[in-house]
Every structure is written in C-alpha cells, then in structure tokens.
Design goal:
Length: 398
Amino acid sequence: FFANVELVPGDPILGLTEAYNADSRPTKVNLGVGIYYDESGRIPLLRAVKQIEQQLATDAKPRGYLPIDGLPAYTQATRELVFGKDSPLLAAGRVATSQTIGGSGALRVGADLLHKLLPHATIAISNPSWENHRAVFGAAGFEVVEYSYFDAATHGVDFDAMLADLGKLQPGTVVLLHACCHNPTGADLTVDQWKQVAALLKDRQLFPFIDMAYQGFDKGIEQDGAAVRIIAEAGIDSFVVANSYSKSFSLYGERIGALSVVAPDANAAKAVQSQVKRIIRTIYSSPSNHGAALVAGVLNSVELRQLWEAELTEMRERIHALRNGLVEKLVAAGAPGFAFINDQAGMFSYSGLSRAQVDRLRDEYGIYAVGTGRICVAALSQNNLDYVAQAVAKVAKA
Ligand code: PMP
C-alpha cells in the first residue's frame, strides 16, 4: 500500500530550525521561531505554573477521563478571560466553551463545526496570515480566499484595502481575524478600526472567526481582547473565538487552548455545544488533563493569578524593550528606516527584509529569519541585539 506514497514537503519554519541547529557558528541566532524565549535564550517555565504544578503533584489525583468538552473549572475561567468577567454574553449563557488541543485544535474543531453548519461557506483569511490557517480550513473542506491586510510600504495595515475586500465578500462568508499580535506581520488594527470592521461584518452578514493566540502579549489581557468585545457589542449574534495558552502561559507542549462559540441565546448555545462535542468525540474523544489543570489552577487562585499576570507583563514589557533596543541599535548602525518595528505588536515583525537579504543574514552571519522577512522579536536578547542590528544594517544598506 505504501510503495508509491508521495513525499510532502516539511514545514518551512521547522526546516529553518533544523538548519539553525546544524550551524556550528557560536554567534548564530534563530529569529525564525514562533516561541517566546527569555533573556537566557530559554523557553520560560512561569513561576505560577511551577507552583501550581507542585501543588498538583502533592495532591496527586487518579486520572479519569475529562468530559468531552474539557475540565469545567478551565472552560469557565477561559470564558471569563476571553470575554471579560462582566460580559453580558456570559450572563445570558450565550457562550459555549470547549477545551481543545492547543489553539490549533480550537481552529480545527471550529472549522469542522462551521463547515457542518455552513457547508457552502468560504473562509477569508488575511494576506498574509499564519500559514497553518489556510491548511487547517482547507483540510476541513473550506475554500480559502484572502482579504488584503498588510501594506509593505507603511509596514502596517492597509485598512482601506481590507475594508474594500471584506465589503465584497458574499453574506455568510467566514472571516478569520487575528485578535491581536498578528502573525506573521505584527500589524494590528486600532480600536476604532475594529469598530469599523465589526460594523461592516454585521452589515454584510459575515461570520467572524477570531483567533486569539497572544492575549496579553501586546498591551494587556483586557486591551488585547478588545476585538472580542467590540464584535459582541456590534450586535453580531453568532461568532467563534479560538484561544491558546501556548504563549501566554508558556505551555507550548501541553497543547492547551479553547474554542468558544457565541450563539444568539442560551438554548442555541447548548445545541451548538452538542455539535461541538460530537466533533471532538469523533477526533480524540476527550482532551487531556494536565494543561487544563495548570491553567485552571492559576486562573482560579487569587495569588497565582496575580503572579501570572505579573509574569505576563514581564514578557510583554521585555518584547517592547527588545523592539525599542533593536530600532535604536539599527539607527546607531546607520539603518534608520526600521522605526516601524516599534509600532508592530507581539512576538513577530515583518521586517521588510527581502528574501535575498534574509539569505545573506543566514549565510554570512548565521542569523535565521523566515524567507518572507518575518522575525521573532521574542527570540532576541540583550546579548545578541548588537550583533543582529549590525548584521541587519549591513545587509539592508548593500
Ligand atoms: N493561531 C496563531 C495566529 C498562531 O500564531 C498560533 C501558534 N503559533 C496558533 C494559532 C496555534 O497555537 P497552538 O500552538 O496553541 O496550537
């Protein structure tokens, strides 16, 4: 059976890490990753996570199955984090939240749900978007189209073009929106722009699918979740939100995320939840316990939640400091054209570097970035900032 199976190409970003690992230069830097590293170049183990883990180990419990839609203490806390504790949607019982296998699992379960309920719908994703968006929605059976998003000239959002493209979509089209910290560009909408997008979505009867993988990584938990509230306040009665704790809790390998479905009323929310459960049941039956227990344990403890929020603030402020530092050092190295890096949000920046410049950074300096020019700002450190700035300035000038 397997004699003639086609070899499919590997993930280009993971391929980059393999090339980086094989590079013997001690000054090498991997800016191609999608992970937050701390000053010492390691994935942080948050203190709040470590503390709850120790408590859970002390009170070790038997490992029964979780319900299909996950640990109730986790889904409840997640709903409050994503929508805000005082959200009228929560009070009305209109939000059904399921624990999922990371943010990716939420995207796929959400895609399966929408494809079942809206079998003829197309999905529109931003140009560019996280490369897995196209793959996940395509695998769920969607036709995937793009709406204009990034403006290479300003290094920000081409908002007029975005609105124009969204305005041309057929009613019922699903629109995938990055809540904050847009991956891969770092270009986000302002609150006022979100309001305009929400009004247009409502007016054109488009279906919002919000992907929130970086809540708390730019301005704060509440501000980074503004898109969710603005869409709700616009009176759009049905939409979904996929969120992930991979970055905000530094729990990448625990695969912990959630899908929240907003329905017009509590009865509709129950019915949609029954559909979500059927989908999960036929893929992996029920989710795993550990990541959910960690997140729920932290979010539901006053003390640990405070500690987590402080650690999230530390990560966010460090990213801002690295952005500032990079821009300053680029100016000092004679490359003043990168001030826009300070305006971009989250871990990533579309640096404006061409494929040829990215190739030179890799070949001549051992600095690895994605071919599109995407760099992970959170993989910089005060130790390599000078080296990276000098190298970028050299390839940018030539
Ligand atoms: N959406 C976006 C925009 C992402 O960048 C990522 C992770 N890189 C995900 C979803 C998936 O998150 P997870 O790793 O939790 O599956």
